[in-house]
Amino acid sequence: MSKKEFIKKLRKNGYKATPQRIVIYEIINSFEEHPTAEEIHKEVLKKFPSLSLSTVYQVLHLLRDLGEITELKLSNHSSKFETKSEIHINLICPKCDKILDYYSDTVNTVWSEVENEFNFKPISQRIDVYRYCNECKEIMK
Amino acid sequence: MSKKEFIKKLRKNGYKATPQRIVIYEIINSFEEHPTAEEIHKEVLKKFPSLSLSTVYQVLHLLRDLGEITELKLSNHSSKFETKSEIHINLICPKCDKILDYYSDTVNTVWSEVENEFNFKPISQRIDVYRYCNECKEIMK
DNA sequence: CTCCGTGCAAATGGTTTGCATCTTA
DNA sequence: TAAGATGCAAACCATTTGCACGGAG
């Protein structure tokens, strides 16, 4: 979604299109990985030095409620955020919490099979697979 | 696993079989639902009035590390615990955090298909599907 | 001009930790 | 009796909240 479309979406839902919201939205989409709120804040500060961490949290929740991002709670009591995308598996390292997305046709096919079984439409879903990442595997040797 | 087997497992792994650990283990297995640490503690106090919450946490982590239970982090920064069992889907209500387990042959079949695709053996996995539970659906009407 | 949003600082609350004391093996 | 476990209280820390000010519509 472009910046313009995002502004439209905000207004359509009764929210004001503030520069803070727009910057945060843009920053989030520029991440390759899954950033934490703190990482987003740090990045946003470069363009907007006065933007507070609490605003980051508020905007993240807004984006989540608008269905723009997904919040992934982790085992160390923090969250990482991902931009909404097609169905995939989160490959999570239990040691360093790094997350890799795993996409495959099998997952697509197979998941729609599961969804067909439900007698309801899921709001969303999250599939996590835990395994040590290559770095952590190396360290443990 | 019986109480005796549990004691054996503890000792085999170099842990002492304390009454606290045994009570907590038994209580957890008596829950139908997915209890929080606090709920477990409350229940344990009935049989063991001096058992502290921090011991509950320590034992829960021990059980988790032994692979006896799974910790499910939730959106309100707390956890619920489930006794290890076969592959299933957690049906989670985003409003009240209630969790229902969903078992089906499709899930079994479909998951082993996905696992075959991996070139590694997962430590564990977690599949969550979000949808409003019947009570919350009712309330929102 | 009004109301919503922001920023600051303080509060929150589930979880973790330090340490003296007690228990298990 | 030595290594490990417990219980208490204090610390943690990511996240949330209250409130006065500021900016969007």
Short description:
Two copies of one chain form a homodimer. Chain A is α+β, with helices and mostly antiparallel strands and 141 residues long.
Instruction: Supply the CATH superfamily name of the largest domain in chain A.
Output: Winged helix-like DNA-binding domain superfamily/Winged helix DNA-binding domain
Q: Structurally, how many domains make up the residues of chain A?
A: 2
Mean pLDDT figure of chain A: 91
CATH architectural arrangement of the largest domain in chain A = Orthogonal Bundle
Walk me through the structure.
The structure is a homodimer of 141-residue chains. The N and C termini of chain A lie far apart (44 Å). Chain A is flat and about 45 Å long. The first copy, chain A, has six helices and five strands. Chain A has 141 residues and is an alpha+beta fold. In chain A, α2 crosses α3. Helices cover 47% and strands 18% of the residues of chain A. Chain A has a three-stranded mixed β-sheet, with no helix packed on it. The first copy, chain A, has a two-stranded antiparallel sheet with strand order 1-2. In chain A, β1 and β2 form a beta hairpin. Chain A has two domains: 71 residues, Winged helix-like DNA-binding domain superfamily/Winged helix DNA-binding domain (Arc Repressor Mutant, subunit A); 55 residues, 2-Layer Sandwich (Dna Ligase, domain 1). Chains A and B meet through α5 and β5 of A and α5 and β5 of B. Chain A binds a DNA duplex (25 and 25 nucleotides) through α2 and α4.
